[in-house]
């Protein structure tokens, strides 16, 4: 069933369950966020760039107003909620309003995607370890419907790649896409880390060679 919601087109892709800080400074969006706060309602976020406005987006729930300024600007924290398909952009208010339909997913059998889920989390651990030396701490438990979004929300993929993941209709397809992306990222970052460590060791050795022999 179609529904009208406030719409925030932006060059950002919001994932269900993922947090996103926003700085609200345009007058029309100050009004929009103010109304959403008063009415305790969500607004829609959809990727919009030089290629146009996409048809699939995600609703945003305002978690917290982090800071208010005297001129009405706000720093807020939102969290992705539900995917939707944008059918039409309506006029009549200072901000955009979207006529949308929520995207419902058919349930999948957990045992069919469990191995994919575990492999993706393992690869994510490799990426994070290579980048920071830390760990991710994602629980791998059924149901796995939102695991792909949790993983994609932690990696700084390009907006177009994130949009492709958002648009894939099933969790299995999203995890399969992520597996390839994460594997390439892990291998690249591990090579870079290894090369950096080699360079540091070589630099240390060269410093030793430059020391006076004491004769």
Task: Describe it.
The protein is of the alpha+beta class and 215 residues long. The chain has 2 domains: 100 residues, Archaeosine Trna-guanine Transglycosylase, Chain: A, domain 4 (Roll); 97 residues. Helix 2 runs parallel beside helix 5. The chain starts with a strand and ends in a 6-residue tail after the last helix. The C terminus is likely disordered.
Quick summary of this structure?
This protein is α+β, with helices and mostly antiparallel strands and 215 residues long.
Instruction: Return Rg in Å.
Output: 22 Å
Structural class given helices, strands, pairing?
alpha+beta
Within CATH, the superfamily of the largest domain carries the name: LON domain-like
How many helices? The count is 5
Q: Helix fraction? A: 40-55%
Silhouette: globular
The count of DSSP E runs of length 2 or more, i.e. the number of strands, is 7
CATH C-level of the largest domain:
Mainly Beta
Please outline the helices and strands.
Layout lengths: L2 E8 L8 E6 L2 H13 L3 E7 L2 E2 L2 E13 L5 E17 L5 E7 L7 H23 L14 H6 L6 H9 L3 H39 L6
Q: Which properties best describe this structure?
A:
Archaeosine Trna-guanine Transglycosylase, Chain: A, domain 4, 215 residues, 5 helices, five-stranded mixed β-barrel, alpha+beta, 2 domains, disordered C terminus
């Amino acid at each position: 069933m179609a529904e009208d919601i406030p719409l925030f087109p932006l060059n950002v892709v919001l994932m269900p369950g993922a947090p996103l800080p926003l700085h609200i400074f345009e007058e029309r969006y100050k009004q929009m966020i103010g109304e959403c706060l008063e009415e305790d309602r969500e607004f829609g976020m959809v990727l919009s760039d030089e290629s146009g406005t996409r048809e699939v987006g995600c609703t945003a729930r305002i978690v917290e107003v982090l800071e208010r300024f005297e001129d009405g600007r706000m720093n807020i924290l939102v969290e992705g909620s539900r995917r939707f398909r944008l059918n039409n952009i309506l006029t009549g208010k200072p901000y955009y309003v979207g006529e949308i339909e929520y995207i419902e997913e058919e349930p999948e059998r957990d045992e069919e995607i469990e191995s994919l889920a575990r492999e993706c989390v393992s690869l994510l651990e490799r990426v994070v370890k290579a980048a920071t030396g830390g760990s991710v701490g994602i629980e791998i438990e059924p149901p796995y419907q939102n695991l792909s979004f949790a993983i994609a929300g932690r990696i700084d993929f390009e907006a177009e790649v994130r949009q492709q993941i958002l648009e894939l209709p099933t969790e299995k397809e999203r995890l399969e896409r992520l597996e390839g992306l994460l594997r390439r990222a892990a291998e690249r970052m591990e090579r870079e880390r290894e090369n950096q460590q080699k360079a540091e060791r070589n630099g240390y050795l060269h410093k030793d060679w430059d020391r006076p022999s004491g004769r």
